[in-house]
Amino acid sequence: MPAPFETSFAEALLDAERAIPDGVTAHNAANPTRRFAVYRNNVVAGLASALKDRFPVVEKIVGEAFFGAMARVLVVERPPRTPLLATYGDDFAAFIAGFEPARELPYLADVARLEAARTRAYHAADATPLDAGRFAALDAGLVGGIRVDLHPSAEIVRSPHPIVTIWAMNSGQRELAPIEDWRGEDAIVVRPYLDVEVRILPPGGAAFLLALAKDMTLGEAAEAAVTDCPEFDLTRNLAGLIGWGLVQDLILPEPQKHGLP
After folding, report:
1. Could you tell me the pTM of the whole model?
2. Residue 60 to residue 66: CA distance in whole angstroms
3. Which residues of 214-253 are buried (b: 16+ CB within 10 A; e: fewer)?
4. Quick check: 116 and 93 in contact, CB under 8 A?
5. Which of the residues 26, 47, 165, 201 has an alpha carbon 20 to 30 A from that of 56?
6. What is the CA radius of gyration of the chain?
7. What was the pLDDT predicted at 107?
């Protein structure tokens, strides 16, 4: 059975080797092939431009020409699956990791992951971070049993490369300079209020937050963080959890919730 017209039309748009689908006409040309080629180029160029808008730091690192060529390959191999272009490129990092011409930049895929997380944070649901006073009023003896509802925009990006520093230097957040201490950085991306923020997590911070996201208590999450990183400092990480607006709500242990001793 022949493919539906819409399917064959979409496939032909992204494959220059395909003939134009039967039934395509041009009102001002006897032969629509040339007109379809122009339309095909505009579609690919438009999708590549959407990627450029979402990944400006990746483009700055590799240059406009390299990025344009890489984006066009992605568009052909992995076209959009939804009409929401704001989410197009969620798999760009995975594509870059397997893109042979980019292999000399092993950190590039993780920078793309960071930029994709920033876009998702920007479009995440609005939520007011929990006031620090709520934490101060807690019974110290019950803190270990508390569960944390993280802010809906919060996302952790882990990397063996200094991706936050690289991103900051290429986005204008920091002055461009050689990175003398080349070590991995774990990032927290969050939009507690109007602006998306990117911060470097302290040692063990990523494991701590990931454990909280899995519904572990603060005590359990701290144990998981120490296992991941013996240098984990609970006080420092709690300060970040509160001060950076990463918490939407607290789930208190059952005895405290019901006012029991």
Report:
1. 0.83
2. 10
3. eebbbebbbbbbbebbeebbbeebeebbbebbbbbeeebb
4. yes
5. 201
6. 24
7. 98
Q: What is the predicted pLDDT for the residue at 260?
A: 40
- Structure confidence at residue 247 (pLDDT): 95
pLDDT at residue 173, as a whole number: 92
Copy the structure tokens of residue 82: 């939804």
Give CA angle at 53 (47, 59), nearest 5°. 100
Could you give the dihedral angle defined by the CA atoms of residues 237, 149, 110 and 179, in that order, rounded to the nearest 10 degrees?
-20
Q: Crossing angle for the helix pair 218-228 and 205-213, nearest 10 degrees?
A: 140
Q: How many CB atoms within 10 Å of residue 141?
A: 8
Count CA atoms closer than 13 A to 260's CA, side-chain side: 6
For the chain, percent of residues with pLDDT exceeding 70: 81
From CA 48, how far away is CA 74, in angstroms rounded? Answer: 8
Q: Is 190 helix (H, G, I), strand (E, B) or coil?
A: strand
How far apart CA 55 and CA 89 sit, in angstroms, is 9
Token code pair at residue 154: 């919060």
The tokens describing 98, both together, are: 């397997």
Structure tokens given for 105: 């930049």
Contact 149, 179 (CB under 8 A): no
- Strand 247-251 and strand 187-190: the pairing is unpaired
Tokens 């208590």 found at: 217
- Rounded CA separation 232/207 (Å): 10
DSSP, residue by residue, 14-26: T-TTSPPPTT--B
Point out the residues of the chain with pLDDT beneath 70: 1-43, 255-261
